[in-house]
Write a structure and sequence with these properties.
heterodimer, A: alpha+beta, nitrate reductase domain fold, two-stranded antiparallel ribbon, 15 strands, 34% helix, globular, B: mainly alpha, Fumarate Reductase Cytochrome B subunit, 9 helices, binds protoporphyrin IX containing FE, binds iron/sulfur cluster
Chain lengths: 569, 254
């Protein structure tokens, strides 16, 4: 046994309102830069739907993840090491920008600078890749809320695995949202696919990262990841991915998507797992056994043997304590309501989902029945095969039994807690029908419904001995070129033109992007410093270029040295 | 044999200068610009032409590089003693070389056409890229010209560069340069050699550095890479790195 820690997220899908706040805040924090316009570390897709990039779940086509070869050995589906090397000059299985969408902006400047004319000027869409006019035909979220789904829904890879009559009835039956980030898999296919060894899984907290200094742009990780959560930054020529906001996690803060989630449906906690058993579990022959195999790799942090082994493997006591209090562990193991997304990809994904009961409740209520009555709900769950099969296609490789079990637990909780809230005697039989006690139901209810901040996020901090080295502990404004330094920042180019030189910390690059956006001159394309766009000026500070250059004290390079707002530091 | 100053400049000074820039420049860039060290793949923008162009170009190039290695590094006496006749050598070298060159040149044409005509790819082309393509195309085309013009069309066994260019090339590495060997080398070859030397001089400063990170060790490592957070933690993002400091400190991870 080799004990390792894994920072794990659980999302309670019943509570997702599809507001995309998580995607937007994540983008503002991480991918608000040239080269990452199309990159959504966090996206929220409507199911049924095509997902992002389109049809990424169709592994026959994209060849992501792992599969078993004829001898039953675990291999990368897109081909092992030699095949990767042979196809390195052209990667045949990589989605291109049209499978995501071509990023664009609008020619806003037209609205201001167009000469007087008969017709109102319009801001036409301009491609951010070619600078040309373009026709917008797809985006990160085109089929949101089933928009246009009669035209596209047939292509949903999950639906295609179900029988055809199902696909047609589906739209009337139900719809839900699926927020997705990188799964920070225990057996990450992206890491395995990287020819340079630039991608790695952190031993302490399991976060999967790309070393920006070692990535050489072979773009094999994009193919390897079956969830298509590694993206290629087309400006720097390097892969980038969801970092689980490691600079925040290291100091005990939840990720940006969790922190800002409107539905408060995300849980973060540590789980312990046995790194020695990962390969064996991922090679489980029957796809439908993978869910159980994946759970069996996780270790019970209350087991004295596990605690002793964890200490031996150098896991600090406060981390073991955090694993014992972990909401993720409770939802996965104690209440058994969390399921992994697509275990059949064999990467052992570590973002888990509580499948939504609300579609069932909606149907029951709309047919005039009591949507909070345990028995009615139980009956409805087993009758509503279509949603059940769909959810099973997402979470359990098609096996409906685990999904049904979870939904029954949620239904039991609903019914039990209604009695409690109405001051009636709760029916213990409802709880025991799903294998729980009344107290367990109450505890689960507290975790799922009340969900206090410090119960949702139990994040042990990285150790004080190394606090100086942690990303966010250093004031990033002091970074060379950062706002505190008056350097060139993102406008400066490295010795070999743009995208060379030292990587700029994202916080610093964003600062400059925002500052230069205030002084944007060009209607589209990467914003460059220049004339002031007063529309974007909030009246604070003195943007560069507002006044003509003075006696040479200001350097005019759009940095912060001379009047762009200073971050509070 | 009399060796003029021009000869010394052309066949001693320029080669050593270019090779020195090549070696030192590459080391320097590796130390200071690991972040800029990438293929800058443009596959995301366009796939149809790249599918054809890139493998043609690169596989052709690998064949041509292998040919250059045999022709330049292996003395004629070795192949002679191995029993390879002049006719056989010329036949193999010329026809395999021509096959490689055809792939290489057609790949190059596709790649350059694609760069110029695909909007996003053209927009992502830097000035360094343009310089690189000019130098690269010049070397490749002059080499192809020399081969076609002198080795194939001129009849016979063509020009025997293994008596002149190859020993001169090796003499550079033995640190006893013999510029005299290059007297009387056909112009096409002289031009090709000079252009190639200049290509090596710009090499470290262009995207061509990606060739040095060909991931040959990939088959040797385990699939899953673990790293300790503490080991990966160097100086913290606050440490400003000066131009003369290596970029091996804390790494940015995304
Ligand atoms: C064996 C080592 C090499 C490997 C593995 C390799 C791999 C690659 C890859 C993956 C690309 C990016 C293609 C794309 O997706 O856009 C590329 C591009 C390129 N490589 Fe190489 N390469 C190697 C050697 C070389 C050499 C020796 C040269 C030239 C002397 C070269 C010249 C180029 C050029 C010019 C491009 C740009 C193509 C374009 O216009 O987009 N490569 N290479
Ligand atoms: S989900 Fe994340 S960790 Fe898993 S393969 Fe994809 S990028 Fe790698
Ligand atoms: S912020 Fe929360 S509720 Fe809103 S879409 Fe994201 S996960 Fe769903």
């Amino acid at each position: 046994m080799r004990v390792m820690g894994q920072m794990t997220m659980v999302m309670n899908l019943d509570k997702c309102i599809g507001c995309h706040t998580c995607s937007v805040t994540c983008k503002q924090a991480w991918t608000n830069r040239t080269g990452t316009e199309y990159v959504w570390f966090n996206n929220v897709e409507t199911r049924p739907g095509l997902g992002y990039p389109r049809t990424y779940q169709d592994q026959e086509r994209w060849q992501g993840g792992w599969t078993l070869n004829r001898r039953g050995k675990l291999t990368l589906r897109a081909g092992g090491r030699w095949k990767k090397l042979a196809s390195i000059f052209f990667n045949p299985k990589m989605p291109d920008i049209h499978d995501y969408y071509e990023p664009w902006t609008y020619e806003y400047d037209m609205l201001l600078s167009a000469p007087a004319q008969e017709h109102t000027p319009v801001a036409r869409p301009k491609s951010l890749l070619s600078g040309e006019n373009m026709k917008i035909s797809w985006s990160a979220n085109w089929d949101d809320n089933l928009g246009g789904s009669t035209a596209t829904m047939q292509d949903d890879p999950v639906l295609q695995h179900m029988s055809s009559h199902v696909a047609e009835e589906f739209e009337q039956t139900f719809m839900f949202y699926l927020p997705r980030i990188c799964e920070h898999c225990l057996n990450p296919a992206c890491v395995a696919s990287c020819p340079s060894g630039a991608m790695y899984k952190r031993a302490e907290d399991g976060i999967v990262l790309v070393d920006q200094d070692q990535c050489r742009g072979w773009r094999m990780c994009v193919t390897g990841c079956p969830y298509k959560k590694v993206y290629f930054n087309h400006k720097t020529g390097k892969a980038e991915k969801c970092t689980l906001c490691y600079p925040r996690i290291e100091v005990g803060m939840p990720t940006v998507c969790s922190e800002t989630c409107v539905g408060r449906l995300r849980y973060l906690g540590l789980v312990l797992y046995d790194a020695d058993r990962v390969g064996e579990a991922a090679a489980t022959p029957d796809e439908q056994d993978l869910f159980a195999a994946q759970r069996s790799v996780l270790l019970d942090p209350h087991d004295p043997d596990v605690v002793a082994a964890a200490r031996r493997d150098g896991i600090p006591d406060d981390w073991i304590d955090a694993a014992q209090r972990s909401p993720a562990w409770r939802l996965i193991h104690d209440y058994e309501v969390a399921l992994p997304l697509h275990p059949e990809y064999r990467t052992l994904p570590m973002v888990w989902y509580i499948p939504p009961l609300s579609p069932v409740v909606d149907v029951v209520t709309s047919s005039g029945n009591d949507g909070e009555d345990g028995r009615t709900l139980f009956a409805a769950i087993s009758r509503m095969r279509i949603p059940l099969e769909y959810l099973a296609g997402l979470f359990t490789a098609g096996d409906t039994r685990p999904v049904e079990r979870v939904l029954r637990r949620l239904a039991a909780m609903r019914s039990y807690m209604r009695d409690v809230n109405l001051g009636r005697e709760p029916v213990e039989a409802t709880a025991s029908a799903v294998g729980m006690t009344g107290d367990e139901v109450r505890e689960m209810y507290r975790l799922l419904a009340i969900a206090k901040y410090d119960e949702r996020y139990v994040i042990p901090t990285a150790h004080a001995e190394i606090a100086d080295d942690l990303e966010e502990m250093a004031c990033s404004l002091d970074f060379e070129g950062g706002p505190g330094m008056g350097g060139q920042g993102m406008q400066g180019a490295g010795p070999f033109g743009s995208s060379s030189g030292q990587p700029t910390p994202v916080a610093v690059e964003n600062f400059h992007a925002l500052a230069s956006r205030q002084t944007a001159d060009s209607p589209y394309g990467p914003t460059t410093p220049g004339r002031v766009n007063l529309l974007n000026w909030d009246g604070n500070g003195r943007p560069d270029g507002l006044f003509p250059p003075g006696d040479g004290t200001g350097d005019g390079t759009g940095g912060s040295a001379n009047g762009a707002p200073r971050g509070a530091s | 044999m009399d060796v003029s100053t021009t000869q010394i400049v052309l066949w001693v000074v320029v080669p050593y200068a270019c090779l020195a820039i090549f070696v030192v420049g590459t080391l320097w860039r590796y130390r200071y610009d690991k972040f800029g060290w990438t293929t800058r793949s443009s596959e995301l923008y366009e796939k149809r032409l790249l599918r054809l162009g890139s493998p043609l170009f690169h596989f052709g190039l690998l064949a041509v590089i292998a040919g250059h290695f045999v022709g330049l590094a292996i003395p004629k006496s070795w192949t002679d003693s191995a029993g390879v006749s002049e006719a056989a050598y010329h036949f193999l070298a010329t026809w395999l070389g021509t096959l490689g060159a055809v792939m290489l040149v057609s790949g190059l044409v596709i790649l350059i056409y694609r760069r110029r005509t695909t909007g996003p790819v053209f927009l992502a082309t830097t000035r360094t890229d343009k310089l690189m393509y000019v130098m690269l195309a010049a070397s490749i085309l002059s080499g192809t010209w020399a081969t076609v013009h002198i080795q194939i069309l001129a009849g016979g066994y063509g020009y025997d560069y293994r008596q002149t260019i190859s020993p001169w090339f090796r003499s550079l590495f033995l640190l006893q340069p013999e510029p005299g060997l290059m007297l009387g080398v056909p112009l096409a070859f002289a031009v090709h050699v000079t252009l190639a030397l200049l290509l090596f001089a710009v090499w470290p400063f262009t995207r061509l550095v990606h060739a040095f990170s060909a991931p040959v060790t990939y088959p040797l490592r385990p699939y899953i890479v673990y790293r300790s957070r503490d080991a990966a933690t160097g100086g913290g993002s606050r440490t400003p790195r000066r131009g003369w400091e290596p970029s091996t400190g804390r790494r940015e991870k995304r």
